């Protein structure tokens, strides 16, 4: 009898032990051991791949040392100051951008100086397609994005650059600001120039004469202010949205581009001499704008710049001129 009782007691102890183990296992299953892999925080990517004209390029997510061979105005509109840019866009050489270029190191002009760029230790290079530098030479220094100059208008180009720098919101805000300033400017000049009046933009540089369309010099007048081009220029703009200017035009051909108002841009001393001589000719004297004293000489360094900031400057200057605040020449 005693032996039987001992056996039953032993059996109960064994059953209790097995039950306890089962509960322990269940507890362990409900609360798995945290491994190093699950416990460690996930690091954010430091680079990303973007599609460019040179294929896919891996660039920093948040570049700190940008060198821009051009596009200083676009970067300034996005709130970015590069560490280096071409001399043509710095200081007195580019008065529209001077307030944004202090402290930026010059990297030569065209072609830019590769050694000067390398010395700045950039983590991103933004280049144009007219630098005369091979993409491979840039990419040896830092990841490089080449942005074509003539394929997009000023607003689209700003959006393109912003997309590479995660600044889309900043780009849209600046474009809205540009549009608002343009609308205000159109309101300011509505009593001073009618939609029926035509406008021509003539540039003298060296011994050349060209008539401009809706890009570069013409953007502020034809797009922002929505002024009317002469028939030949209007036709060229409709055929090619990227139309910048005619080829060289002879003095005898100038009357074909005659307009009610002419904006004249003189780029250098030789061109200034040519323009002065032109004013003595009968061909020039008989142009409608000349007869009606509606020829306006504009500043080359202020107008011959195609970026968001410079467009705003040109629009303001055009309003000053057309409302009679500017000097007619």
Task: Please give a structural write-up.
This protein has about 325 residues and is α/β, with parallel strands linked by helices. It is about 45% helix and about 15% strand. The strands form three sheets. Strands 5-4-3-6-7 form a five-stranded parallel beta sheet. Strands 8, 9, 10, 11 and 12 form a five-stranded mixed beta sheet that branches. The protein has a two-stranded antiparallel sheet with strand order 1-2. The longest helix has 29 residues, at about 1-30.
Put the structure in a nutshell.
The chain has 15 helices and twelve strands.
Index terms:
329 residues; alpha/beta; five-stranded parallel β-sheet; five-stranded mixed β-sheet; 12 strands; elongated
Whole-number average pLDDT?
87
| SSE run | HHEEEHEHEHEHEHHEEHEHEHHHEHH
Q: Structural class of the helices, strands and pairings? A: alpha/beta
Q: How far do the termini sit from each other? A: 132 Å
Strand percentage, roughly? 15-25%
Secondary-structure topology with pairs:
Blueprint: H1 2-30, H2 36-39, E1 47-52, E2 55-60, E3 66-68, H3 72-77, E4 84-85, H4 98-101, E5 105-106, H5 114-119, E6 124-128, H6 135-139, E7 144-147, H7 154-165, H8 168-189, E8 198-205, E9 208-211, H9 218-224, E10 228-229, H10 231-239, E11 261-266, H11 269-278, H12 282-285, H13 288-291, E12 295-298, H14 300-303, H15 308-322
Helix pairs in contact: 7-8, 8-15, 9-15
